[in-house]
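Predict the assembly for these two chains.
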Amino acid sequence: MPDLSVHLGRLTLANPILVASGTFGYAREMERIVDCSRLGGILPKTITAEPRTGNAPWRTVETAAGLLNSIGLDNDGVDAFLENHLPYLAGIGTAIVVSIAGKTRDEFVRMAAQVAGEPGVAALELNLSCPNVSGGVDYATSPEACREVVAGVRAVSDVPVLAKLTPNVTRIVDIAAAAAEGGADAVCLVNTLLGMAIDWRARRPLLGNVMGGLSGPAIKPVALRCVHQVRQAVDVPIVGIGGIQSIDDVMEFLVAGASAVQIGTANYYDPTISTRMIDALPAALAELGAESVSEIVGTLQTSPPPQPASAFPTPDR
Amino acid sequence: MSGALHAPFCADQAVQVKTEVREIEQVARGTYRIRFAAPEIAERIFPGQFVMLRMAGTSDPLIGRALAMYDVIEDAAGRPEAIDVIFIKKGKFTTAVAEAGRGAALDVWGPLGNGFSIAAAETLLIAVGGVGQTPMLALAAEALGRRSFGRPSGYAQRVTMVYGARSGDLLACTAAFRAAGIDLRLCTDDGSAGERARVPELVERLIEALPPPAGDSVSGSAQGSTAVRIVSCGPEIMMEKVAAVAADRSIPCEVSLETPMACGIGICFSCVARVRQDDGEWDYKRTCVEGPVFDAARIVW
């Protein structure tokens, strides 16, 4: 049996398969479908300082190989989370990485201080990049703002801190570097791509909030590119997110430089996929002759191969 | 709603299986019934619950579709084995399944949602429009004691169903409804079948024609036997009007909402409806796990 464990800075996980915030509820919803204790980690739905009603329907719209969402961080607030959800999550037996979103730097810091000390919290993920919350500053579009939030949270939190970044920037490397400077144990790449869908006959947007975040297989190439770029330029562990729906996708992200991955939208349309990926991981590692996950992370070779197998190599189609 | 029947806001019985379309039949214009084997789901599902269906092995369409259980089919030994669902061919998924036909590979997960509650009534009055008829065959059979879905049955003395559509060629499965013992009242917008009327007005007339209730049993309480209970499924505007007819007369009424879902299991928070809380304020509630059947009086239309 290969060694599936991975390290994200100070955070150690039993395996690299996590489930992304906002795509797994508070895990209780999945308890009869998925053996949640087997997951490398669980990110419950993002919590905010105060309860949020969320956005008006429609909140999701299917697009080609993707899903647009604008849920609007519908949640009951941090106090209700700690009372109603954390005790259950803490008892599952896997790493619980609590996703928090603040409207201001101080709000992030206050929430982090409140949550980090609670038993059962393995780490925090800073949702710096939810595209659906109007009025707030997007802390993952400015390197300075990103560094300040991460550093502020690090100063009050004993648990590892992950920074979830948006791909909706010109140079994600700059943001990732800022997160690392601020003390992030890892960066999570990427949140959804801002998009929209339209009913031209009605001349109306399909989402109640007009625009939303695109996820699913459609965005996987973008996420892979972001992981690759950050891996090349910044010395920080990476958690890959974006359209991962098969063990092949998992392996691509690991080779590109992610130490772990989060399964997101695939949980919606294939609820048992996450643990099936864990089942399939040893055989995939064996194909590379690897005895551990960590030894394949970031092993992508971008220089031309010495000798092509064929003059006209054909990719799988 | 009764606590015992109310799923604890999670898909507490659901399993995910791979299967294929075993049978497909056109049951009305553009309307299809498909059957697929799924014993683990068939043995647990009850009226008003639904399953999520997805074409296996494709990213387009990507997301599952929520479809109500129409019927549970038993094998030769009398064990629940297969499930029938009904859909209108309109959109990526339904078009792909209807065209792929028999043998189409499906991913299915369920049973999902909390279904209709069980409450005794002299008359169970069902008000449906279009494909909203789907869950009512099983409900009527259960209410009349002709079928059991692993929970009490025989809780209504009669079942009357008002079933409306735009035109007669859209009415599906009427023979099956009659054979199940339902007093079926059809109506269409264009008068091409049944009465030329809308569902809510026919419901109102039927209620007016019912014998007056004995004592004060029509109190709006779901406790004990009631003269009449209403359940409704179909277009939102129709359900809203049916709910208003019920509310005016303090008749208990349940509606099954059809908000677009992405997961069906409570993890995406897409399928929300505005539901009135005990404090009188509304909050968005997930239709998949807190519904799809709601007490109509709690819905903020």
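The interface with chain A takes residues 9-16, 54, 59-64, 92, 107, 109, 259-260, 262-263, 265-273, 283-284, 289 of chain B (CB under 8 Å). The longest helix of chain B spans residues 236-248.
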